[in-house]
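Marked as duplicate of an earlier ticket. Keeping the data here for the record.
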Amino acid sequence: MDKYLLALLGEAGASGLAKGFSIRYKAFQEAYLEEKEHWKYFKEFRTSFLEIPVFISLFMLGLLFSFVGERAVRYVNRKAEQGAINFYKERFRNEEKIKEILNDELKHLSMSYRNLRQ
């Protein structure tokens, strides 16, 4: 499958998760805005009718996990961000914008290791 399509859908899902998490944990508001920017970047290369359903599905999951608790949110965030980081490192090479996205993803990953209640 096309790496740009996968990245597009991944960022749509990451945006949904972060939006769902941010309802209860305001620490994810900035992550949501950054994930939305990543999504917008990949829309320049590909679009898909699956973007909105993926966003909504993962928004609802993010909301659900946020009510389960902080530990669940950190676990899901860690898995999602590690997957994104590995995906970008394996499939994209020496692209300046991807380096910026990777830095953002590493920052989002660090949220899995700190207190989310601020």
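See parent ticket for discussion. Helices lie at 3-24, 29-43, 51-68, 70-91, 96-110.
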